[in-house]
Amino acid sequence: FVPFIAEPATEYLEVSKEASKAFTATVLSRVSEMYARLKQ
Questions:
Q1: How many degrees, rounded to 5, is the angle at CA 32 between CA 27 and CA 38?
Q2: Could you tell me where the DSSP H helices lie in 1-40?
Q3: Going residue by residue through the chain (40 aa), what tens digit of pLDDT does each one get?
Q4: Distance, CA of 10 to CA of 2 (rounded, Å)
């Protein structure tokens, strides 16, 4: 019973980890773009 729950849970955690990495990368690139525009 526990492995049945744990398997999707770990999969979900991996997916959300990847998603948050992608989200962070997007935010960082947006911020650096804005910063570059401000510096001009």
A1: 130
A2: 2-39
A3: 566 667 778 888 888 999 999 999 999 999 999 999 999 8
A4: 12
